[in-house]
Amino acid sequence: MKSNSINHFNLGEIKLDPRVPLFVLLVFFALVLMLNPAFGKSYYHLGLIFSIVTFSDFFLNYIFNKKIHFSLSPMASSIGIVLLVYSVSWKYFILISLMVSLSKFFIKEKGLHIYNPNNFGIVFGLIFFSDHVTTTIGRWNFNQEMFITMIVFGFLISLLANRALVSIAYFLSFTLFSLMRSFFLGTTISYELLPLNSPTFYLFMFYHITDPGTGPVNKKGMILFAVLIALVESVLRSMEVIYSPFFSYFIVLSFQPFLSSIFERRYRNQLRPA
């Protein structure tokens, strides 16, 4: 679910683009989940969302940048929509898929897109079509082996992209704020830590907020970025806001351009463009 530019992991003379194992792994998860009718998706949904996100990004990239180029980033974003969004109507998947690409080209600051395209599409659907769009939380039917696979490979891919610090800082912050909510709100610790049992939590932590295209590249910025996402999420959870992780990520990204001295976004000069 990465957008735009990424780091490359050097193994001797070999350069491994983290988006390659990311895309392969996300497709694998999607195919496994579609075997379960409760997930509510079919190969039709996969093909529809993949085609809209990928080809709309291709055409917009040609119009704005005069480039004929298919990128792995929108491909991964499309699978992210398959894994995280649920609706009984295909038309909402079309609208959300279009917003994934449009946000990348139209909502910018100093030439850089502000929002993670995948998260923007999800938040767009949850806000404007709340009666028809939800997330797939509770629809995942992973066995223990698949659950462990998601965590292990998620961490490895975040390492390849030099974004593991974001995941670690988020996990520790989420745990700390959950314990604080339990203490101050009088809820049980098991209740506050319940999201740790959900595959979507680790999808969000390893494959979502680690997007190098919209996050800071400096270590201090990465840590603060992750802590702020967890903090805003904790506040939203205490207010019983549904889908708080996605909204918290959206809110923090909205303020990131105003805190450029902390959140360094120099990647356009360092990393390969999508």
Summarize the structure.
This protein has helices at residues 19-33, 43-65, 72-84, 90-106, 117-128, 144-160, 164-185, 189-192, 199-207, 219-238, 244-255, 267-270, and strands spanning 9-11, 14-16, 85-87, 108-109, 112-113, 133-135. It has 274 residues and is mainly α.
Model description:
With about 270 residues, this protein is mainly alpha-helical. It has one domain (about 10-270). Helix content is about 60%, strand content about 5%. It contains 12 helices and 6 strands. It has helices at about 20-35, 45-65, 70-85, 90-105, 115-130, 145-160, 165-185, 190, 200-205, 220-240, 245-255, 265-270, and strands spanning about 10, 15, 85, 110, 110-115, 135. The strands form 3 sheets. It has a two-stranded antiparallel ribbon with strand order 1-2. A two-stranded antiparallel sheet has the order 3-6. Strand 1 (about 10) and strand 2 form a beta hairpin. Helix 1 (about 20-35) packs parallel to helix 3 and helix 3 (about 70-85) crosses helix 4. The longest helix has 23 residues, at about 45-65. It is globular and about 55 Å long. The model is unreliable at about 1-15 and about 265-274 (pLDDT under 50).
Features:
274 residues, mainly alpha, two-stranded antiparallel ribbon, two-stranded antiparallel sheet, 12 helices, 6 strands, disordered N terminus, disordered C terminus
User: Which strand-content bin applies to the residues?
Assistant: 5-15%
Going by helix content, strand content and strand pairing, the class is mainly alpha
Number of domains: 1
Order of helices and strands: EEHHHEHEEHEHHHHHHH
Describe the main β-sheet briefly.
2 strands, antiparallel
Q: Strand tally, please?
A: 6
Compute the CA-based radius of gyration.
18 Å
* Number of discrete helical segments: 12
Distance N terminus to C terminus? 13 Å
- Helical residues, percent: 55-70%
The average pLDDT value, as a whole number, equals 89
Spatial strand sequence of the major β-sheet? 1-2
- Principal-axis shape: globular
Could you list the spans in which at least 5 consecutive residues all have pLDDT below 50? 2-14, 267-274
